[in-house]
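Protocol step 4 of 5: obtain the predicted structure for the target chain.
Materials: sequence only (see below). No template structures provided, no constraints applied. The aim of this step is simply to have a reference model before the mutagenesis design in step 5. Sequence pasted as it appears in the construct record:
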Amino acid sequence: MAFDPKKFIPKSVEEIKKQIGNEQAICALSGGVDSFVAATLVAKAVPNQLHAVYVDNGLMRKNETQKVKEAAKKAGVNLIVIDAKKRFLDELKGIDEPEKKRKTIGRVFVEIFQEESKKYNVKVLVQGTIAPDWIESGGMGRDTIKSHHNVGGLPPGMHLKLCEPLRELYKHEVRMLASELGLGDAIAQRQPFPGPGLAVRVVGEITEEKVAIVQEACEIVETELEQAAQSGKMEKPWQYFAALLPSKTVGVRGDERAYQYTVVVRAVKSLDGMTANFSHIPFDILERISTRITNEIRTVGRVVYDITNKPPGTIEME
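Step 4 output (structure tokens):
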């Protein structure tokens, strides 16, 4: 049966009312479509009991915090912003294993929300968890593909009760809900962004320098592909970004030898994120992206394009 957002919304609102009751709730609002839709549904169900919190973990896209503030204001969501950049980077120092990174990020997120929840006597944690999150995180006979921070990163001793109104939905269904809720294309059609942020686009150990490189590279990739799609040169991918490899390669800067980072450009077509095919980007656009990245980010000397489908790869690097 086809998904009907008009029927889902009132049913979900009633279920949320029953689940939360008279308790205060805190929502982990990342700025993506999943968390915005979850927050909007809970705000409809218990408007005076929701505390929406955005945590700047230092692993967000360039200027992301300001964009999230503006989007929340437009959506009518009262937002609490917490600067936790140093805390996350300190906790991630020396960690290069992908699963450990994800679980560390999940743990720190929950610790922050537990701390905030005490300020408002909160008992419920609202998350924008969707079906691929818990499917890929494994359990109940399923292999773990990757632990999503909002699933595999949750500590066993967490005192907050979970409310996940989108748990059985897929990304395209959440986008339909966002449109029906009147959130606008800026949110409804926003490309997916991983919960652990740029941590999964920095392969290996995370440093402030590496995050800054990926922020700039992602901004270039997003700008160039969106402009190309708007001008009719190509179809807009479902997800598109840049990632940083842990190794350096030899190159040339002027007449001198350079030893610099390699950036991977990734763009895919997908419906729900469970499977994906790499996008066929015109060579002139890839060339422009490569030229801009190597010219504007002086610590990067090589750019490659990822032509791996999912499976066997995942959409993100880690």
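Step 4 remarks: Residues 137-142, 144-153 have pLDDT under 50 and may be disordered. DSSP finds ten helices and nine strands in the chain.
Proceed to step 5.
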